[in-house]
């Protein structure tokens, strides 16, 4: 378990859920690139009846705050009519790995 | 995804828990010792309390909001628990006790937090003048404040039951109901009568910062009945061994999420992390219900035969999952069955299948006790005391915490409903036995502590 802010990896998971359409990856990726955030991995599939994209990103080199990035992503998501969320990777590690 | 080490399914499971199944961190509770606030006069004491509480918890709401956004899990309440006021109030009389309660309320208001607990006394063995002053002040203190929560410990396995105090608490609950008659006697919802109270419980109304705790500490209460309900439903008609495994696994995940949030909050607040309390605490939202879990386990309605056994399994599986997930599980950690806060419980009480007697039986196998039970306004004080004594006896003999939070709603009768609003929910007035317990309560004295050997 991370004890302090320094222990956080700086990686986060971006999830995009909604119906498929042109330009979703391009739109979201542009927001991420503008923020100086590196995309480490992308996967997309249909899960639980939703078209879903999951991205692993690295925020450690970015000078945009987590909150600010979250805001920008959610604004872009609204434009594209998809739901975009970003959470630090630690929450997934905590829940799914012993 | 090679960078992740976990699958898309797992990611979506976590997100689904929050979005659809209402997983939340119910509370981040900072425990604060007030021992160093002690002063010769009440005014200085109040100044010291206000200064210390608002200094230590100054960033609580901001930090909680920040963490909730970063980890994607809502934090519903921010709370503070303080040293039981009876231990730090010196020679204060009842009027000064009310001033202390108002000071706590003002501090909570200034910080923008939801509740502050610790207007408390421990009288399981005997009652001092200061305990008496605090209890005497309760009706006015709870009527004059909004966020202050109170508790009185009237029994323990080591000390037995203080029946004089239990008699007094029956009368006190009646007085609180009268003092807050204008608002459905809501003052009673802010008072817990305990047996074997725990010192690190982050849940209200019974939170206080025990005398053995350090100067300040962050405790976290996680909930998640909706998540467990979904898991039980998805498991289908498996046998009890498999069912336990499903609940245990779910409790593990919830607890780990809670510990992460708790540790992050502690680090950012610069306060040591204490414990995580994994309790299935229902809310009035439809699927956020312990009753619905029991029904998913196979009961047509909660309260019918089998309810106690189903609850025992649920409570134990939750504890096992939680204990595996974190080294510092504490507080109450189990399943709560507050009547007014659980849609399924309300329905069963209205139907008449869930009675006060069945609720009492169920409390012997789950955490806490008769919680948020609304009864007729004309219920005699002795009957309330006898209900408290029954519940405390269960705790005393079984070496567990039990609590009574009962509301004799002024002017209401069986069949009426009261709405407390928010997390406190809506309660049908349920009947109590009408045969008198007055002679029993009038005996006074103590019920001796039980034999804890020769247990075969």
Automatic annotation (TrEMBL), chain A:
PROSITE patterns: ACT. Pfam families: ACT_6. It comes from the Bacteria. Residues 13-89 form the ACT domain. Belongs to the UPF0237 family. HAMAP family: UPF0237. This is UPF0237 protein PQJ73_22395.
TrEMBL record, chain B:
SUPFAM superfamilies: PFL-like glycyl radical enzymes (SSF51998). CDD domains: RNR_PFL_like_DUF711 (cd08025). It comes from the Bacteria. InterPro entries: UPF0210 (IPR007841). It holds the Pfam family DUF711. Belongs to the UPF0210 family. Homodimer. This is UPF0210 protein PQJ73_22390.
């Amino acid at each position: 378990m991370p004890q302090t802010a320094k222990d956080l990896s700086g990686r986060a998971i971006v999830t995009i859920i909604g119906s498929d359409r042109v330009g979703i990856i391009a739109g979201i990726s542009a927001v991420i690139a503008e923020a100086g955030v590196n995309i480490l991995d992308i996967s997309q599939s249909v899960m639980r009846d939703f078209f879903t994209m999951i991205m692993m990103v690295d925020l450690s080199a970015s000078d945009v705050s987590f909150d600010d990035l979250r805001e920008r992503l959610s604004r872009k998501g609204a434009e594209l009519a998809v739901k975009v969320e970003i959470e630090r990777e630690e929450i997934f590690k905590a829940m799914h790995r012993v | 995804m090679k960078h992740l080490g976990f699958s898309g399914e797992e990611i979506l499971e976590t997100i689904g828990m929050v979005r659809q199944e209402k997983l939340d961190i119910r509370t981040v509770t900072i425990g604060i010792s007030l021992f160093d606030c002690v002063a010769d006069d009440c005014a200085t004491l109040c100044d010291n309390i206000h200064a210390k509480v608002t200094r230590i918890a100054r960033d609580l709401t901001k930090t909680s909001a920040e963490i909730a956004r970063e980890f994607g899990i809502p934090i519903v309440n921010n709370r503070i628990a303080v040293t039981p006021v009876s231990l730090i109030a010196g020679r204060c009389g009842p009027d000064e006790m009310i001033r202390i309660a108002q000071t706590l309320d003002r501090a909570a208001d200034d910080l923008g937090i939801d509740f502050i607990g610790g207007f408390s006394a421990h009288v399981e063995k005997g009652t001092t003048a200061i305990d008496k002053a605090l209890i005497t002040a309760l009706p006015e203190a709870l009527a004059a404040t909004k966020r202050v929560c109170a508790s009185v410990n009237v029994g323990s396995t080591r000390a037995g039951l203080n029946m004089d105090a239990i008699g007094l608490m029956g009368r006190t609950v009646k007085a609180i109901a009268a003092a807050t008659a204008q608002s459905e006697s809501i003052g009673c919802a802010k008072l817990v009568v305990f047996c074997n109270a725990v010192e690190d419980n982050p849940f209200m109304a019974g939170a206080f910062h025990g005398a053995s705790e350090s100067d300040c500490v962050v405790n976290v209460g996680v909930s998640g009945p909706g998540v467990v309900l979904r898991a039980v439903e998805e498991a289908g008609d498996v046998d009890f061994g498999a069912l336990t495994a499903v609940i245990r696994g779910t409790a593990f995940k919830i607890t780990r999420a809670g510990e992460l949030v708790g540790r992050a909050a502690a680090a950012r607040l610069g306060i040591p992390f204490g414990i995580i309390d994994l309790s299935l605490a229902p809310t009035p939202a439809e699927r956020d219900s312990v009753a619905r879990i029991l029904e998913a386990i196979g009961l047509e309605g909660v309260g019918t035969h089998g309810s106690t056994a189903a609850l025992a399994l649920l409570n134990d599986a939750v504890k096992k999952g939680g204990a595996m997930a974190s080294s510092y599980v504490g507080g109450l950690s189990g399943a709560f069955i507050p009547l007014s806060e659980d849609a399924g419980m309300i329905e069963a009480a209205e139907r008449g299948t869930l009675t006060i007697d069945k609720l009492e039986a169920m409390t012997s196998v789950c955490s806490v006790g008769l919680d948020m039970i609304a009864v007729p306004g004309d219920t005699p004080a002795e009957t309330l005391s006898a209900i408290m004594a029954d519940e405390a006896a269960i705790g005393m003999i079984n070496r567990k915490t039990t609590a009574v939070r009962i509301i004799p709603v002024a002017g209401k009768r069986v069949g009426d409903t009261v709405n407390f609003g928010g997390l406190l929910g809506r309660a049908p007035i349920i009947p109590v036995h009408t045969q008198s317990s007055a002679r029993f309560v009038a005996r006074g004295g103590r019920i001796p502590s039980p034999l804890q050997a020769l247990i075969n």
